[in-house]
Write a structure and sequence with these properties.
Pathway: Cofactor biosynthesis; coenzyme A biosynthesis; CoA from (R)-pantothenate: step 1/5. By secondary structure, the protein is α/β, with parallel strands linked by helices. Helices cover 38% and strands 18% of the residues. It has one domain: Rossmann fold (3-Layer(aba) Sandwich). A hairpin with a 4-residue loop joins strand 4 and strand 5.
């Protein structure tokens, strides 16, 4: 049984084409400009204002409804416990999906749209990159070629961070990652201070991990999410986008002498493409098949992209 097949009788999802989904925008205003979209989108990502109108305005409206429902439930619980001093915790949106599929663009566009709601909520964005173990530790434990796999993260730090956010703690710190040096920046942190909404983006954020046999509670990252989104595409397309992005970076960011990947900019095009294919096959494809794709069905909403890197279908979990 494929529960993600639109024709599947027992699927927990409702399926919509991009055109059908765009109709749910209703009167949601477009608050981004073309220049802002260009600034927010990642390399090789063609998202433009039309895609924002087709997909993201309806998504913004849906998330607004979920946030309002969460706030209403919070007020009802306050009355139930007669505890007016309880602090409302942030609404956390998890975004998962493979490398090169467009998670970062989705996260940044959503952050800007949500922050421009009439209520002007405070919206923060954190990625899991900063929670990767430092390269020094990865090298020591022979994990450099498993970077991005679940065992390459400081899971304890991830859980402490999300627990602090959901406990409405002040000034919760997230480590910062440099894509230039390909490593965590020592002593540098992003401070999150009780936002209304937190977007938490990373390839493995929906992974449940192993269940304990003794019934003890073992928290997973997704336990702290109020809504989860998975960015999806055919494996062959993601492979193509990954290689294209690598070759573009070879002509841009990799040319910086401080870049971890600077050596690849000195190779011939054929040699660089061979490196990219090896990184895809030996690391990213394995991670996609073993760890990322199996979490897709745990999402509340799935955005499936087509060959043009734009969303073709939306799957929304039934209530």
């Amino acid at each position: 049984m494929d529960q993600l097949a639109p024709t599947e009788k027992y699927s927990p999802y409702r399926f919509f084409s991009a055109e059908q989904w765009s109709q749910f925008r209703a009167d949601t205003p477009l608050t981004l400009t073309e220049d802002e979209i260009h600034r927010l989108r990642s390399l090789n990502d063609p998202v433009d204002l039309e895609e924002v109108k087709r997909i993201y305005l309806s998504l913004s409206r849906l998330l607004s409804a979920h946030v309002e429902a969460s706030q209403l439930l919070f007020r009802q619980r306050q009355a139930f416990f007669n505890a007016q001093d309880v602090v409302k915790t942030p609404f956390i949106i998890g975004i998962a999906g493979s490398v090169a599929v467009g998670k970062s663009t989705t996260a940044r566009v959503l952050k800007e749209l949500l922050a421009r709601w009439p209520s002007s909520p405070k919206v923060d964005l954190v990625t899991t990159d900063g929670f990767l173990l430092p390269n020094e530790i990865l090298r020591r434990d022979n994990l450099m070629e498993r970077k991005g796999f679940p065992d390459s993260y400081d899971v304890g730090a991830l859980l402490r961070f999300l627990s602090g956010i959901k406990s409405a703690q002040r000034d919760v710190r997230a480590p910062v990652y440099s894509h230039l040096t390909y490593d965590v920046i020592p002593g540098e942190f992003q401070t999150i201070d009780r936002p209304d909404i937190l977007i938490f983006e990373g390839i493995n954020v929906l992974q449940p991990g192993k269940l304990p046999k003794d019934g003890k509670i073992v928290p997973f990252l997704s336990d702290f999410f109020d809504f989860a989104i998975y960015i999806d595409a055919d494996e062959k397309l993601i492979h193509q986008w990954y290689i294209q992005r690598f070759m573009r970076l070879r002509e841009t960011a990799f040319r910086n002498p401080d870049s971890f990947f600077h050596r690849y900019s000195q190779l011939s095009e054929d040699a660089a493409r061979a490196i990219a294919e090896g990184l895809w096959s030996n690391i990213n494809l394995k991670n996609l098949r073993e760890n990322i794709l199996p979490t897709r069905a745990r999402a509340d909403l799935i955005l499936r992209k087509g060959a043009n890197h734009l969303v073709e279908e939306v799957a929304l979990r039934k209530l």
